[in-house]
C-alpha cells in the first residue's frame, strides 16, 4: 500500500515517512491524529442535523454543569472545638409585661460568677399593647419572619409549630413559604444576612402607661453552663431597704425578639426569636433549656484554615511574650507590684479572639441552639420568673459552602463536550452501520442520502478488498 | 491480512486507509503534548488512588463502664512539692485524695534560679525516707488526741510525722508546721518545709478515672473530707504570705493516648492544626501574683477513636482491661486508638471575690471564698468522633479515571489538531488567493 502513494499524486510531506532529519519532519511522524484530505471527506445534511442536535445537547449539559458548579455544595463537619475559650456573649431583646424598676436581670454560672446583667442591658419602659395587639398577636410578626405563639397555662401552640416545620422540611426547597427554621440552614442565606446592620432596633415611642419593659443588649458571660434569668425585685435575690413588691404586679408574659449567643447577628434567626409566651397567673415560672452549639459558617474552608493557622501563630507569639515576661520578672518577690501593672498580653485562644483585622466576610462564627421549654405554675414560696438555662456543647459544627476550582469546572466541561461528541459520533456511525447491515441499498440511500461519508468509507472499503486480491 | 471474515462488515471502527491520511508537524506537537498531559494526569490519578483519607464520623458513644486516663504535666513555679496535693473526685462518689499512683512530683528550684529540676520523686509520701526504721521496737508515738489512722504501721500509734498528719486530717484539725510534734521534729518536717519554701514543683504522670463527670484539682495542703465537704489544710500555704501563688504552666494535658502525628499532619484542610493543638491546653500559661487565686478549667471530653487502614481485618485486642499499664490503656494492637479530645473554657478568680473591672466587666461579680488552686472539672460528651482511614478510591475507580483521562484528552487533542490543520489550510489558501 505504501508503495503506491506516488501514483496517487500525493506529496510525500503528507505522510510521515520521509527519511529526512528535519526536526519538523520528525515531529510529523508523531502525529497520531490522522486527518483525511478534504477531497476524501464529504458532508451530508443528515450529518449536519446530527451535529446541531449534539451541539444543543452539549450546550444544555455544559450549562447545567456550570450552574451546579456556581451553586457550590455544602458540607457539614463536626470537630471538637479547638483552643481555650473564655467568654460567651449573650444577646437579648425581650419585652416583659412588668415595669422596668421591678425587674432584675442576672446570670449565674458554673464558675460561680454572678453577672449583674441588669447593668449591661438597656431597659426601656414601654406599653405591652404596643407589642401585642388586641388579639394577643405579636406585631413584629409582620414582615419576613413568621411568628410563633405560645400561650400560658394549658396552651399547646409550641408543639404544633415545631411539628409542621418537620413536615415542611420534606417539601420542595423552592417553596417560598418554607418555614423559618429552614432559612438559616444554608450558608448562602446566612452569609448574605450576617452582614446586615448589627444594632438593636430602637424602642418605639411610649404611648400610654408604661406597663411593660423592653430589655435589650449584649452581656458578656463565661462560656460555661449557666442560668440567665429575669426575676422580680425582692424575689430570688435578697435585698435590703426596698419595699416589698406586690405579688399582684407579677406578670412574666414575655415576647422574645432576640436571644442569641456569640457575636450579634440580628438577621440570623434563632429558635426563640419572635416568640410570645403569655400567662394570666402571677406566679408562673418560664424555663427554657438551651443547648448551645458553636457553629461556623464559611464560604471557603481554605480561608478558615488560614485563619486558624494565623491564630496558632498569634497564640505562640503571645505565649513566647508571656513566658519571656514572666521570666524577666522572675524577681516576683521584690517587685510584685510593678508586674501587676504590666499590660495584660492578649492571648488569642479561639477564632473569636482574633483581632478584627483578621476577620473576613467569608467566615461567620456564631452559635446555634436547641431549646426545650418547661414552664409551670409555682407556689408562693418559689421564685417566679423567666429562666434560660444554657449549656455549651463541645462539638463545633462547621458548615461550609464551597465551589470547586475553575480548573475543575473546565475539566468537567471538556469531559462533557468530548464525551457527547464522541458518543454522538458513535451513535451516528452505529446507526449508519446498522442500516448498512440490516437494510438494503435503497434504505441506506434514504437514511444517508447520496454521496455521504458512509459512502466514501464504502469506497475505501472496496479498495481494501481490491488490495487483498 | 487475515482472510476477510463476515465480521469485517460489522466493524464499527472504520479506518481511513493510510493513503488518505495526512500527517502534519502541528499534529505531532499536539500528540506529544497530549501524551505528556495524559501521563501527568494519570500520575495525579495514581496519587489520588494511593492517598489515605481520614474520614471523621460522629456517633453516639455506646461504650459502657469505660475508664479514662488523664495525663498531665503541669509546673507550679511558686508552690513547693511538699504543699501540693492532687485530688480526683467524680459523681460516682469515687474519691482519690492525694493521688500517689502513677504521678510524680518534680522539685524545681526557685523562679530566681531559673526553675530547674532539682529532684524527681514518685509522688509517694510513704517512702522509705520518712519511715522511722530506727525506732525502738516498743515505741508507740502519740497521735496527740487524734485517732490513729487505720493504715498505721503499728495499730493505734502514730509512728511517723505523716501518720500524725493523717490523724489530724481525719479530725479535720489543721496541722501546721508540726511544731511540738515529736515525730515531725525528729524527721525535720518544718526544716523541710522551710528549705522548700522558695521552690517550685512540677506534677507529671497519669491517673485513671471513671468515665463520668468529675473533677481533679491541684491545691495546697493536705485534703480531707468532712461531712460532704472537701477541705484542704491551707495553713502552711498561707503562712508564707505572698510567696506562693498558683501561677502555672500546663505542658501537657490529655485524656487518653496521644493521636499519631500522621493523623493530624497529613489530613490537610480539615485539620489545619497539629496534634499539639488538639489538646488545647498544651503549652498554656497563667500568671498571677495573688496567692489567693483560683483557676478553673471547664473541660468537655469527647471520645475519639482512630482506626487506621485495615484495622477491621486484624483481630482486635484492645488493652482496655483495668490491669493495662498506665499509658497503654486504649491502644489496640492493630494501631487503633481509643482516646479523647476536649474543648475547654478557662476561668479565674480571686478568692476575695470582687468584680472583673480590670478586664472591663464591672457587672461580673466573682464568688468569694474557696480554695486557691487549679481546678479541672471535666464533663463527658455523649458523642464520639471516629477518625477512620479510608482509601479515597477503589481500584476500579482508578481504572475508570485512567480511561476517562485518556479518552478525554485524546478527543480534545484531536479537536485541537483538527482546528490547527483546517486553520493552516485556510491560511495557505488566503496566501495563494
Alpha plus pi helix count of chain B: 8
Strand content of chain A: 15-25%
Oligomeric description of these chains: heterodimer
- Rg result of chain B: 36 Å
Total number of beta strands of chain A: 17
Q: How many separate structural domains of chain B?
A: 2
Q: Most extensive interface: pair and counts? A: A-B, 99 and 88 residues
Query: What is the helix/strand order of chain A?
Result: HEHEEEEEEHEHHEEEEEHHEEEEHHH
Helix content of chain B: 10-25%
Proportion of residues in extended strands of chain B: 25-35%
General shape of chain B: elongated
Uncertain parts of chain B? 122-132, 265-276
Helix vs. strand class of chain A: alpha+beta
- Distance between the terminal alpha carbons of chain B, to the nearest Å? 44 Å
| Main sheet properties of chain A | 9 strands, mixed
Describe the structure in your own words.
The complex is a heterodimer of chains A (469) and B (433). With 469 residues, chain A is an alpha+beta fold. Among the domains of chain A are: 45-72 and 404-447, no CATH class; 76-139 and 185-302 and 358-402, no CATH class. Chain A contains 10 helices and 17 strands. In chain A, the strands form 2 sheets. In chain A, strands 2, 5, 6, 10, 13, 14, 15, 16 and 17 form a 9-stranded mixed beta sheet that branches. In chain A, strands 7-9-4-11-12-8 form a 6-stranded mixed beta sheet. In chain A, strand 5 (103-109) and strand 6 form a beta hairpin. In chain A, helix 2 runs antiparallel to helix 8 (406-438). Residues 1-18, 134-182, 327-346 and 450-469 of chain A have low confidence and may be disordered. Chain B folds into 2 domains: 25-51 and 394-431; 56-120 and 202-234 and 244-390, no CATH class. Chain B has helices spanning 25-50, 161-170, 182-187, 189-196, 235-239, 261-265, 275-278, 395-432; strands at 21-22, 52-60, 67-76, 84-90, 95-96, 103-108, 117-122, 200-210, 214-220, 223-226, 229-232, 248-255, 284-286, 293-307, 337-350, 355-356, 361-365, 373-391. In chain B, helix 1 runs antiparallel to helix 8. Chain B is elongated, with a radius of gyration of 36 Å. Classes of the chains: A alpha+beta (469), B alpha+beta (433). Strand 1 of chain A pairs antiparallel with strand 1 of chain B, so a sheet runs across the interface.
Amino acid at each position: 500500500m505504501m508503495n503506491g502513494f506516488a501514483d496517487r499524486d500525493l506529496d510525500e510531506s503528507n505522510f510521515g515517512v520521509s527519511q529526512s532529519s528535519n526536526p519538523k519532519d520528525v515531529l510529523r511522524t508523531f502525529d497520531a491524529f490522522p486527518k483525511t484530505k478534504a477531497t476524501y471527506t464529504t458532508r451530508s445534511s443528515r450529518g449536519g442535523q446530527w451535529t446541531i442536535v449534539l451541539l444543543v445537547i452539549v450546550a444544555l449539559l455544559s450549562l447545567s454543569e456550570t450552574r451546579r458548579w456556581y451553586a457550590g455544595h455544602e458540607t457539614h463537619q463536626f470537630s471538637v472545638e479547638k483552643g481555650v475559650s473564655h467568654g460567651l456573649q449573650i444577646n437579648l431583646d425581650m419585652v416583659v409585661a412588668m415595669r422596668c424598676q421591678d425587674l432584675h436581670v442576672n446570670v449565674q454560672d458554673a464558675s460561680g460568677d454572678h453577672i449583674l446583667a441588669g447593668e449591661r442591658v438597656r431597659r426601656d419602659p414601654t406599653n405591652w399593647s404596643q407589642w401585642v395587639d388586641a388579639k394577643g398577636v405579636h406585631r413584629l410578626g409582620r414582615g419576613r419572619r413568621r411568628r410563633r405563639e405560645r400561650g400560658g397555662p394549658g396552651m399547646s401552640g409550641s408543639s404544633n409549630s415545631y411539628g409542621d416545620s418537620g413536615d415542611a422540611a420534606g417539601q420542595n426547597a423552592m417553596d417560598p413559604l418554607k418555614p423559618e427554621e429552614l432559612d438559616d440552614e444554608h450558608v448562602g442565606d446566612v452569609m448574605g444576612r450576617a452582614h446586615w446592620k448589627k444594632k438593636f432596633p430602637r424602642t418605639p415611642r411610649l404611648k400610654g402607661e408604661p406597663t411593660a419593659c423592653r430589655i435589650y443588649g449584649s452581656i458578656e458571660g463565661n462560656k460555661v453552663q449557666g442560668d440567665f434569668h429575669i426575676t422580680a425585685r425582692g424575689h430570688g435575690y435578697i435585698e435590703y431597704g426596698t419595699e416589698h413588691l406586690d405579688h399582684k404586679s407579677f406578670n412574666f408574659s414575655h415576647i422574645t425578639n432576640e436571644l442569641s449567643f456569640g457575636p450579634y447577628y440580628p438577621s440570623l434567626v434563632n429558635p426563640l426569636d419572635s416568640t410570645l409566651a403569655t400567662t394570666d397567673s402571677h406566679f408562673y415560672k418560664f424555663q427554657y433549656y438551651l443547648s448551645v452549639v458553636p457553629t461556623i459558617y464559611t464560604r471557603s474552608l481554605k480561608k478558615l484554615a488560614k485563619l486558624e493557622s494565623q491564630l496558632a501563630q498569634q497564640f505562640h507569639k503571645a505565649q513566647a511574650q508571656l513566658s519571656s515576661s514572666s521570666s524577666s520578672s522572675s524577681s516576683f518577690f521584690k517587685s510584685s507590684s510593678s508586674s501587676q501593672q504590666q499590660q495584660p498580653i492578649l492571648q488569642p485562644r479561639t477564632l473569636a479572639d482574633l483581632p478584627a483585622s483578621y476577620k473576613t466576610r467569608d467566615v461567620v462564627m456564631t452559635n446555634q441552639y436547641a431549646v426545650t421549654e418547661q414552664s409551670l405554675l409555682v407556689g408562693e414560696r418559689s421564685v417566679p420568673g423567666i429562666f434560660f438555662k444554657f449549656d455549651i456543647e463541645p462539638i463545633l459544627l462547621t458548615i461550609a459552602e464551597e465551589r470547586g476550582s475553575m480548573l475543575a469546572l473546565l475539566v468537567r466541561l471538556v469531559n462533557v463536550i468530548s464525551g457527547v461528541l464522541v458518543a454522538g459520533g458513535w451513535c451516528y456511525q452505529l446507526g449508519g452501520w446498522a442500516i448498512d447491515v440490516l437494510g438494503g441499498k435503497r434504505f441506506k440511500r434514504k437514511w444517508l442520502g447520496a454521496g455521504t461519508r458512509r459512502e466514501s468509507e464504502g469506497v475505501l472499503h472496496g479498495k481494501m478488498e481490491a488490495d487483498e486480491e | 491480512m487475515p482472510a476477510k471474515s463476515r465480521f469485517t462488515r460489522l466493524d464499527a471502527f472504520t479506518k481511513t486507509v493510510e493513503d488518505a491520511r495526512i500527517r502534519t508537524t502541528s499534529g505531532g506537537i499536539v500528540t506529544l503534548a497530549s501524551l505528556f498531559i495524559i501521563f501527568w494526569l494519570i500520575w495525579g490519578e495514581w496519587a489520588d488512588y494511593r492517598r489515605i483519607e481520614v474520614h471523621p464520623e460522629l456517633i453516639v458513644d455506646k461504650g459502657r463502664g469505660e475508664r479514662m486516663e488523664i495525663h498531665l504535666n503541669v509546673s507550679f513555679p511558686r508552690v513547693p512539692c511538699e504543699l501540693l496535693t492532687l485530688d480526683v473526685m467524680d459523681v460516682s462518689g469515687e474519691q482519690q485524695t492525694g493521688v500517689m499512683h502513677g504521678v510524680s512530683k518534680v522539685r524545681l528550684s526557685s523562679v530566681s534560679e531559673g526553675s530547674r529540676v532539682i529532684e524527681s520523686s514518685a509522688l509517694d509520701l510513704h517512702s522509705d525516707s520518712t519511715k522511722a526504721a530506727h525506732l525502738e521496737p516498743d515505741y508507740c508515738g502519740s497521735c496527740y488526741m487524734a485517732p490513729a489512722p487505720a493504715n498505721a504501721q503499728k495499730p493505734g500509734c502514730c509512728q511517723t510525722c505523716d501518720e500524725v498528719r493523717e490523724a489530724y486530717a481525719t479530725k479535720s484539725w489543721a496541722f501546721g508546721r508540726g511544731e511540738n510534734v515529736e515525730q515531725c521534729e525528729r524527721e525535720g518536717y518544718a526544716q523541710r518545709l522551710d528549705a522548700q519554701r522558695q521552690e517550685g514543683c512540677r506534677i507529671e504522670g497519669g491517673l485513671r478515672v471513671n468515665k463520668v463527670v468529675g473533677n481533679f484539682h491541684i491545691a495546697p495542703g493536705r485534703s480531707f473530707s468532712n461531712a460532704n465537704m472537701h477541705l484542704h489544710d491551707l495553713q502552711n500555704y498561707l503562712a508564707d504570705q505572698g510567696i506562693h501563688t498558683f501561677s502555672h504552666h500546663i505542658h501537657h494535658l490529655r485524656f487518653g493516648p496521644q493521636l499519631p502525628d500522621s493523623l493530624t499532619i497529613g489530613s490537610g484542610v480539615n485539620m489545619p492544626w497539629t496534634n499539639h493543638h488538639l489538646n488545647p491546653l498544651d503549652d498554656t500559661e497563667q500568671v498571677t501574683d495573688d496567692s489567693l487565686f483560683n483557676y478553673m478549667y471547664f473541660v468537655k471530653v469527647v471520645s475519639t477513636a482512630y482506626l487506621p487502614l485495615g484495622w477491621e481485618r486484624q483481630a482486635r485486642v484492645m488493652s482496655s482491661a483495668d490491669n493495662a499499664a498506665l499509658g497503654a490503656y486504649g491502644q489496640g494492637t492493630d494501631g487503633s486508638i481509643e482516646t479523647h479530645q476536649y474543648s475547654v473554657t478557662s476561668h479565674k478568680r480571686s478568692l476575695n471575690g470582687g468584680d472583673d473591672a480590670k478586664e472591663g466587666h464591672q457587672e461580673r461579680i466573682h464568688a468569694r471564698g474557696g480554695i486557691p488552686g487549679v481546678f479541672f472539672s471535666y464533663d463527658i460528651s455523649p458523642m464520639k468522633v471516629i477518625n477512620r482511614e479510608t482509601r479515597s478510591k477503589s481500584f476500579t475507580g482508578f481504572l475508570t479515571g485512567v480511561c476517562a483521562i485518556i479518552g478525554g484528552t485524546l478527543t480534545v487533542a484531536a479537536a485541537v489538531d483538527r482546528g490547527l490543520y483546517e486553520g493552516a489550510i485556510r491560511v495557505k489558501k488566503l496566501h495563494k488567493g
